[in-house]
Design brief:
Structural class: mainly beta
Helix content: under 10%
Number of domains: 2
Strand content: over 45%
Order of helices and strands: EEEEEEEEEEEEEEEEEEEEEEEEE
Radius of gyration: 25 Å
Largest sheet: 11 strands, parallel
Shape: globular
């Protein structure tokens, strides 16, 4: 593989460096005036023909815009995202698997904006979120499974803003929240399940601000809230279930329903004290 040259955006990659192609053949000042063999007669391999060490995030901006997944697997396991982006916007997931197991997000973005999930699996088990963005903005979930089990959230943003949930399952089982933000703001829940049971909240924020619940289940059963905030402010509860059964709220943890409207939604508190005025 060492005799393969790679180019990126019209530039040659040399070792760990990017160089301007037009200067690759410019002789060193000390070599000017010396006779050089024509390129085809050179007896030594050229330095820029070496295969560079490839960062796990290469190419830097793979795109799957509008792709249809009806089987197979796309794997980003263990990838470190410190810059760049991976885009699945407008994609349709009917079957198959896309995995980011044990991936580290310290920058950059992975987006599934306006994607449609009717089957298959998106797996982010054991992923670490320290910075950057994972976005499901305006995505539609009618089936399939999205997994954040045992993931660690210390920073960054994961958003499901304005997404629509009529089926499928999203799980944060045993996930740890010590920073960062997960948002479901203005989302609509008419079916399916979003489960944080059990998860540990020692900091960070999970919000369902201005969301509408007309079906489905959002579960925080056995979750532990030692700090941080879960906010349902300005949400509308028309039907479905929000479950805090056997959750543990200790001083410093906050579950808020400011200006929320309660209708037919079943809210299960278990031993968790019901917020005053709700």
């Amino acid at each position: 593989m060492r005799d393969t040259a790679l180019t990126q955006h019209g530039e040659n990659i040399v070792g760990d460096h990017i160089t301007d192609p037009q200067h690759l053949d410019t002789p060193h000042p000390d070599e000017r005036g010396k006779t050089r063999l024509p390129r085809q007669q050179e007896t030594q391999p050229r330095h820029h023909a070496r295969l560079p060490r490839v960062h796990p995030f290469f190419p830097p901006r793979p795109t799957f815009i509008g792709a249809v997944f009806s089987g197979g697997t796309a794997t980003f396991n263990g990838t470190v995202f410190s810059d760049g982006s991976v885009t699945f916007d407008h994609a349709e997931f009917r079957d198959g698997t896309v995995t980011f197991v044990s991936a580290v997000f310290s920058g950059g973005s992975v987006t599934f904006d306006q994607a449609v999930f009717s089957g298959g699996t998106i797996a982010l088990d054991y992923a670490e979120f320290g910075d950057g963005t994972v976005s499901f903005n305006r995505a539609m979930f009618t089936g399939g499974t999205t997994i954040f089990d045992r993931a660690m959230f210390t920073g960054g943003t994961t958003n499901f803003d304005r997404a629509e949930f009529s089926g499928g399952t999203i799980t944060f089982i045993a996930a740890e929240f010590s920073g960062g933000t997960v948002t479901f703001d203005r989302a609509r829940f008419s079916g399916g399940t979003v489960a944080f049971a059990p998860a540990a909240f020692s900091s960070g924020t999970v919000t369902f601000v201005s969301s509408i619940f007309s079906g489905g289940t959002v579960a925080f059963g056995r979750a532990e809230f030692s700090s941080g905030t879960v906010a349902f402010d300005y949400a509308e509860f028309r039907d479905g279930t929000v479950d805090f059964d056997r959750a543990r709220l200790v001083p410093g943890g906050n579950v808020t329903f400011e200006s929320a409207e309660s209708g037919g939604t079943r809210i299960i508190w278990g031993p968790l004290p019901q917020p005053a005025g709700f």
